[in-house]
Amino acid sequence: MIYCMAGKGVAPKRTAAAPTSKGAKRAAHRPSRREVVVDAAMHLYSVRSIEDVTVADIAAEAQMTSAAVYYHYPSKDEVLLGGLRLYADGLLEELRAAVENDADASLGDIIVGLLEWTDQHRAASLVYFVRSPGWSLSIESLRREVRLTMLNIFTAELRSRSGVTTRAKQAAAATALSSLLEVSVSSW
């Protein structure tokens, strides 16, 4: 799910059959299982506080062993960071596509399109915008990088679409658009 939103929509190869019973565990050493770990973790992080989720919980949700989770990620924080990176890549990809594909769309329409996209990825959106802020320096660094990229895109679009020429007005309006997106998603 998250891999698909980050442009990694290639269906993973399935080399082993899915477990037939609820308690059966899946094979650990398959690269395609990495996405299952991330999806399971993001789901858990969206319904429980991050500090309450353990690697064992992620493993159970993904129907694998804790060792299989550790094979892909050294800690639950790295699973979280990996999931947030994929989400951020997907969000920025969606923003860039909206800007490139419809030169006549208003920035308000682009924000609405982004909100619709975040609604389609509600669990990851909740984790990114509500649960993860302040969790770690790595996550804050990622969020800052994404915010700056969005501000640069909005600033360029304000200049070209709306004719806003002064840097101060561009910065204020770009910040308002970014804040509108974040507050809207956080308010669900």
Give the topology.
Elements: H1 2-5, H2 33-47, H3 55-62, H4 66-72, H5 76-101, H6 107-120, H7 122-131, H8 137-162, H9 167-186
Task: Write up what this structure looks like.
This protein is mostly helical. It has a domain of 103 residues. 69% of the residues lie in helices and 0% in strands. The protein is built from nine helices and no strands. Helix 3 crosses helix 4. The radius of gyration is 19 Å and the shape is elongated. About 5% of the residues have low confidence.
How would you describe this structure in keywords?
single chain, 188 residues, 9 helices, mainly alpha
Give a quick rundown of the structure:
By secondary structure, this protein is mostly helical. It has helices at residues 2-5, 33-47, 55-62, 66-72, 76-101, 107-120, 122-131, 137-162, 167-186. Helices cover 69% and strands 0% of the residues.
Proportion of beta-strand residues: under 5%
Tell me the number of helical segments per DSSP (H or I, 4 or more residues long): 9
Global Rg: 19 Å
What structural class is derived from the secondary structure elements?
mainly alpha
Using the alpha-carbon principal axes, give the shape: elongated
Report how far apart the termini are: 21 Å
User: What is the total tally of β strands?
Assistant: 0
Q: Give the fraction of residues assigned to helices.
A: 55-70%
Strand count, sense and closure of the main sheet? Answer: none
Average pLDDT figure = 86
The H/E string reads: HHHHHHHHH
What are the segments in which pLDDT stays under 50 over at least 5 consecutive residues?
Answer: 10-18
